[in-house]
Structure prediction request, 314 residues.
Amino acid sequence: MKRILITGAGGQIGSWLVPRLRELYGTANVLATDVRHLGAEVTEAGPFQVLDATDQKAVGQAVMRHEADTVYHLAAILSAIGEKDPRLAWHVNMASLEAVLEVAREQGCAVFTPSSIGAFGPNTPKDPTPQDTLMRPTTMYGITKVCGELLCNYYYTRYGVDTRGVRFPGLISHGAPPGGGTTDWAVDIFYQAVESGTYTCFLGPDAQLDMMYMPDAVDALVKIMEADPDRLVHRNAFNITAMQLTPEGLAAEIRKHIPDFEIGYEVDPVRQRIADSWPDRIDDSAAREEWGWQPKFDASAMTADMLHHLSLSS
Ligand code: NAD
Ligand code: SER
Prediction:
């Protein structure tokens, strides 16, 4: 049975991943950690510890005390917040990854680290974006993701640390809100559709980006860490996607359920520039071939499920 430590467990992904891993591997085997105190639904449901992932000594002690053999490293600053405070993004994203990798090297842990479509830049082929291609991102977030991928591969080839990762697209979920990214609109739109029937989008109507529903993202997180290492040609990190959405296209999907739903636009130039520098559609065939990646939710199934859950909770 795996013994797992999760950093950044209180975020959009962690709030889904923690219960799933506890279900699979046993509550006592999964230690959730975050730099913030979290609510009772996390802290009372299983082991929890406040942990700054940039503090290598504290990470080492937590891994040792929990006898962890696997770290899911989710702590990070996302793209839009990263452009507001680039030094914070560099510090948190790089110092925490270095700390986790060093501890993993010393204590023999496997490490999952998410990369992102943000690792690509304006010169990358946009449709489709190959697995192995030009990566010259123009955001600090993207720079930390490319450096992170290279550092994870370095720890694998140089020290034999079992590092694996995926390049997530924008993730759509209900529950914990998104953490300040460029793809947050694709979550906000659902909350506003249910609450007020109208949404003002910070990206323009045709801004197309890869997206994925959180249940598929959590499946990917489990599946890649369970994958047979002999089948992995790539490691850090695999392109994965489930659907391509524009604000206008998602609004049309929502109108199938809420016919009067209206969308308007007040474009934020910073986030629009970030979106314009990212792919329109990534090619995830390497993930499909090497570890059987296969999403379950397309735009239509995801929209129906999101609206169902949000209507129940409103
Ligand atoms: P999030 O912003 O929702 O959550 C990040 C969590 O990290 C927060 O709970 C925050 O308190 C915590 N944190 C921040 N600084 C910390 C520190 N120093 N030590 C410990 N914890 C700290 O982010 P998320 O959406 O859950 O993303 C998790 C990872 O997945 C990130 O690496 C992100 O880049 C990546 N990713 C996310 C998306 C997405 O759409 N959500 C897409 C691609 C990649
Ligand atoms: N959803 C993330 C962001 O917009 C993509 O990595 O920052």
